[in-house]
Specification:
- By secondary structure, the protein is α/β, with parallel strands linked by helices.
- 50% of the residues lie in helices and 10% in strands.
- The chain is elongated and about 85 Å long.
- It starts with a helix and ends in a 29-residue tail after the last helix.
Length: 240
C-alpha cells in the first residue's frame, strides 16, 4: 500500500510538471519590406522592377496612395495567398500613414497564386469588379505563362489609373478648415451680441419691465424627445 501511494504521488507530480511547461506556439516569419517592389522570389528582371517602382512612386507622390508589390517563393504554411497577403499588409503597416490608402499585390511562385489586399479607404475605388478585371486581363494570364514582370507592371498601371483622383489628407484638411470658419463666425456673432447687450441697460435690468407689468411669474416646463441610432460597417475584398 505505501508503494502504491508513492507511485500515485510520483505520477501526479509528473503530470503537474508537464502541465506547467508553457506551450511554445510556432511563429511564422514573414519577409521584410524592400521598398515599392519586394522581390523575395527573385523572379523580376531589373527593367520590369524599375518600371513597377516608377509607377508606384508616382502614384504615392501624386495621390498619397501606397502601392506595394511582393513576390514570394511559396505561401506555406499559410493556406491561401489571401491569408499571406493580409498578414504582410498588417505587419508592414502598408497605407497606415496614408489613412489606410494602401494596396498590396502578392504573387506566390510555387502555387501560381496571386492576391490583392486593400486599405478600407480604397475599397470604394478599387472595387471587386476592378480587381476581377485587372486579374483576368493582366495578372493571372502572365503568371500562367511565367511572365511575372509584365503581368505585375500592367497590373500596377491599371490600379494606378483608377486611383488617380484620390487625394490622401485633402478631406481632413478641408474639414478642419471649415470647422475653423464656423468657430470664427460663431465667436464673432457671440461677441457682437454681448457688446450690444451690455450697451442696453434697460434690457439687462428687469425693473423697467416689471413696472410695465410684463413680468407676472416664472415657470419651468419639461422637454422630451427620442434619440435614434446610426450603424454602419466596412468590409474588405480580396482577389485570388
Amino acid at each position: 500500500m505505501p508503494r502504491l501511494f508513492v507511485l500515485l504521488s510520483l505520477l501526479l507530480l509528473t503530470a503537474t510538471v508537464a502541465q506547467a511547461v508553457p506551450y511554445d506556439r510556432p511563429k511564422i516569419k514573414l519577409p521584410d519590406p524592400l521598398g515599392y517592389v519586394s522581390d523575395h522570389a527573385k523572379i523580376l528582371e531589373d527593367d520590369w522592377k524599375a518600371r513597377i517602382r516608377s509607377v508606384n512612386q508616382d502614384l504615392e507622390r501624386k495621390t498619397g496612395v501606397e502601392m506595394i508589390v511582393v513576390t514570394v517563393p511559396t505561401i506555406k504554411p499559410f493556406g491561401s495567398a489571401n491569408d499571406y497577403a493580409t498578414a504582410i499588409y498588417e505587419k508592414w503597416g502598408i497605407g497606415s500613414t496614408q489613412q489606410e490608402h494602401g494596396i498590396l499585390i502578392l504573387v506566390a511562385v510555387e502555387e501560381r497564386q496571386a492576391a490583392m489586399t486593400l486599405g478600407r479607404q480604397m475599397l470604394p475605388i478599387v472595387t471587386p469588379a476592378v480587381m476581377n478585371q485587372v486579374g483576368s486581363e493582366y495578372l493571372y494570364p502572365s503568371i500562367e505563362r511565367g511572365h511575372f514582370g509584365e503581368g505585375l507592371y500592367r497590373t500596377v498601371v491599371a490600379l494606378a489609373s483608377v486611383s488617380q483622383d484620390v487625394r490622401v489628407g485633402s478631406l481632413s484638411k478641408n474639414h478642419f478648415r471649415n470647422v475653423g470658419f464656423w468657430i470664427t463666425l460663431f465667436t464673432s456673432i457671440g461677441a457682437i451680441s454681448f457688446l450690444w447687450w451690455i450697451s442696453r441697460p434697460d434690457l439687462r435690468h428687469p425693473y423697467g419691465r416689471i413696472r410695465k407689468s410684463e413680468y407676472w411669474g416664472t415657470g419651468q416646463g419639461g422637454f422630451g424627445g427620442n434619440w435614434g441610432g446610426f450603424g454602419g460597417g466596412t468590409s474588405g475584398e480580396g482577389y485570388r
